[in-house]
């Protein structure tokens, strides 16, 4: 570069060893490079301080300054899809088992059907009595009301005359839902406990019942979810819970 500058200068036709000219050109080039670097640095700093103006009617949305990319993504809301983040179902079975035995049909809790003024000592008695009434078997219906033991009530319910499974299947869930609603709406303590379950799924963990339960006990029910039965009792209880919630909302 120094030789090109020297040869292109008509005024300098002398020995290239001329130290005065060489030093002068070297200082000039160094000064030029410093000026270029300084100008570039100043332009870059000015560009950082300058805010770009959007054109009229621009649809560009400018975001506030962000940190590293990981910070941007971590601050964004995430959909809760992790199974561990979802509250587990409420599992119940025997009426004496805590903390959720109160959800059992056999749990003793007196309530009255306002349409007939008939009182029942548990939801199982209500269900079996209505099974007998459904087939007009008044003798069995009276026997069900006469016994205070849920186990005996269930046994009598299996002895209803002129039984029709298909016809009963069409109405049985409504019967159990209504009985559950009366049970919880008329017993303050039970109502509070039911409402404490919030929106959690209610599941009867019965290993021997795949219709009203899921067909698995509490120890294996969650790991066998893909193989669950119908869980009709839990579904009836959840519908009854919604009715109780609606009643409470009306009182506010």
UniProtKB/TrEMBL annotation:
Start-end of Acidic residues biased regions: 45-54
Record's signal peptide: none
Region (Disordered): 1-20, 45-84
Residue ranges annotated for the NADAR domain, each copy included: 92-244
Membrane-crossing residue ranges in chain numbering: none
InterPro entries hit by this protein: NADAR, YbiA-like_sf
CDD domains named among the record's database cross-references: NADAR
Identification of the protein by name: DUF1768-domain-containing protein
Organism: Aureobasidium pullulans
């Amino acid at each position: 570069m120094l030789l090109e500058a020297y040869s292109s200068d008509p005024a300098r036709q002398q020995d290239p060893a001329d130290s005065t000219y060489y030093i002068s050109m070297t200082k000039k080039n160094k000064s030029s490079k410093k000026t270029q670097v300084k100008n570039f640095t100043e332009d870059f700093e000015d560009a950082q301080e300058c805010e770009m103006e959007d054109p009229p009617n621009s649809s560009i949305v400018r975001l506030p300054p962000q940190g590293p990319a990981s910070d941007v993504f971590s601050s964004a809301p995430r959909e809760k899809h992790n199974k561990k983040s979802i509250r587990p179902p409420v599992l119940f079975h025997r009426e004496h088992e805590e903390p959720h035995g109160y959800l059992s049909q056999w749990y003793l809790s007196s309530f009255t059907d306002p349409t007939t003024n008939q009182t029942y000592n548990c939801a199982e008695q209500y269900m079996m009595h209505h099974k007998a009434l459904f087939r007009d078997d008044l003798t069995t219906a009276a026997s069900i009301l006469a016994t205070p033991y849920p186990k005996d009530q269930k046994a009598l319910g299996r002895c209803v005359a002129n039984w029709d499974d298909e016809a009963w299947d069409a109405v049985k869930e409504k019967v159990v839902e209504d009985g559950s609603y009366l049970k919880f709406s008329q017993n303050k303590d039970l109502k509070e406990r039911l409402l404490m379950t919030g929106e959690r799924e209610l599941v009867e963990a019965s290993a021997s019942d795949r219709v009203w339960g899921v067909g698995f006990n509490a120890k294996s029910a969650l790991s066998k979810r893909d193989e669950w039965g119908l869980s009709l009792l839990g579904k009836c209880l959840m519908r009854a819970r919604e009715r109780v919630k609606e009643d409470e909302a009306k009182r506010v």
